[in-house]
Specification:
Elements lengths: L32 H21 L8 E13 L4 E12 L2 E12 L5 E8 L46 H6 L3 E6 L33 H16 L5 E9 L1 H12 L5 E5 L17 H7 L22 H6 L6 E6 L7 H17 L21 E6 L7 H14 L2
Parallel strand pairs: 4-5, 4-6, 6-7, 7-8, 8-9
Antiparallel strand pairs: 1-2, 2-3, 3-5
Helix pairs in contact: 3-4
GO molecular function, one term: carboxylic ester hydrolase activity
Protein name: 4-O-methyl-glucuronoyl methylesterase-like domain-containing protein
Keywords: Hydrolase, Serine esterase, Signal
């Protein structure tokens, strides 16, 4: 279906009512955190689960972890490296993925950033010991990935997005997983996590069941199953960029074990308000990436006005845990203003817990972060993850993820 041309003109943003996170679907006002937990949080979560990201259809039958490689003197002696194979089993079918974990040497109790990468664990570093993924990979000539297969030529090709030295030097660890090992990012539900759960004759998820974003969020929680039992790890902050920022937000909303959440340029279906219809819209995203969300979400394509929730309520589900929303000034497709407003509209829920966020008097100023429990920045530049972003995430985590 042809989609309307994307709008980048603020004067053409439609008038809309922001759904009140502190008013239940039946019209009852929420005035304290106990009421939020008892009456509002679950109904919002269930709407997102059934109508947007989709429900996980069942529990796994079993899962396993095996440290398949480790070195206590990695990266020139500054890090401990572990590579962990995670096995998931359901209906006599199995799926495996690898976690790459770096911990700062000498820090026996380090907080860790956990995030997916786009092309393989070996792309985030020049480290020759990091295993090259065998999973399907999106072709990218600039990154030396051809025939949907990663090779040695792509090692270190995305290290610019992962400030590993900076992370380690500040006492943090990094855990990363190639998202394609959980669910290949193509409109084909036959070869990823979903297929483990199919009943006889089933070839795709049911209408209200999970799309790829929910599957990636599920994978982050399975990585967390390992990380929470590693005695050298104190806290886990789930991080994601772009579509993987959407997955990080849903993982954070779904799994309270994550101690903090970072959304980097997550845009439509992530941190940005859908009802603004600015940049990428629900219609655009469902048309271009029909596998990301539940099938039930498609009824809101080009009909954002009938959606009874918006993305600020997703952010609110993470309260009172620390949350950082970040935008880029030239990333209009992801609607930076919509991301800022979403954080602002989620702030009243944080206030129920005595936590600070984005006040009504705040405004987004490029390269001037607002760092509270609910934090926000818009930096100069394009859709990317930069050293500037990592500088902010590290300083924020040192103050708020304790």
């Amino acid at each position: 279906m042809a989609q309307p041309e994307a709008n980048y003109d603020e004067t053409k943003v439609p008038k809309f009512t922001v759904p009140d996170p502190l008013l239940t679907f039946s019209g009852e006002a929420i005035t304290d955190s106990d009421q939020w937990e008892e009456k509002r949080k679950l109904e919002i979560y269930q709407f997102f689960e059934k109508q947007i990201y989709g429900k996980v259809p069942a529990m796994l039958d079993e899962y396993s972890f095996e440290v398949i490689e480790e070195d206590n003197n990695a990266l020139g002696g500054k890090a401990q490296r572990k590579q962990i194979a995670v096995g998931l089993k359901k209906n006599n079918r199995s799926l495996n993925f690898n976690i790459l974990l770096y911990l700062p040497k000498g820090n026996e109790n380090a907080p860790v950033f956990l995030g997916y990468n786009f092309h393989g664990n070996h792309t985030v570093t020049d480290d020759p010991k990091v295993i090259i993924t065998k999973a399907w990979n999106a072709n990218d000539i600039a990154l030396n990935i051809q025939n949907n297969k990663a090779t040695e030529a792509s090692r270190g090709s995305r290290k610019n997005r992962w400030a590993i030295d900076k992370i380690l030097d500040n006492g943090f660890g990094l855990a990363t997983v190639y998202y394609g090992e959980i669910d290949p990012d193509k409109n084909d539900f036959s070869d990823g996590l979903h297929s483990l759960f199919y009943r006889e004759g089933q070839t795709r998820p049911k209408t209200n069941e999970w799309g790829s974003i929910a599957a990636w969020a599920f994978g982050l929680s399975r990585a967390m199953d390992y990380l929470e039992n590693d005695t050298n790890i104190s806290k886990v902050i789930v991080f994601g960029h772009s579509r993987l920022g959407k997955a990080a937000l849903w993982a954070g909303a779904s799994d309270p074990r994550f101690d903090g959440v970072i959304s980097n340029n997550s845009g439509c279906g992530g941190a940005a308000l859908s009802k603004r219809k600015y940049g990428e819209t629900i219609g655009h995203i469902n048309n271009s990436f029909p596998h990301w969300f539940s099938e039930s979400f498609k009824k809101y394509s080009n009909k954002e006005e009938i959606l009874p929730v918006d993305q600020h309520q997703l952010l609110a589900l993470i309260a009172p845990r620390p949350l950082y929303v970040a935008s880029a000034a030239e990333d209009e497709w992801a609607d930076p203003k919509g991301e800022f407003l979403s954080a602002q509209y989620a702030t009243p829920v944080y206030a129920l817990y005595g936590k600070k966020g984005i006040s009504k008097s705040d405004s987004p100023v490029v390269d001037r972060p607002i760092q509270e429990t609910l934090a926000y920045h818009i930096r100069s530049g394009k859709h990317d993850v930069t050293d500037y972003d990592w500088d902010q995430y590290i300083s924020w985590a040192q103050n708020f993820v304790k």
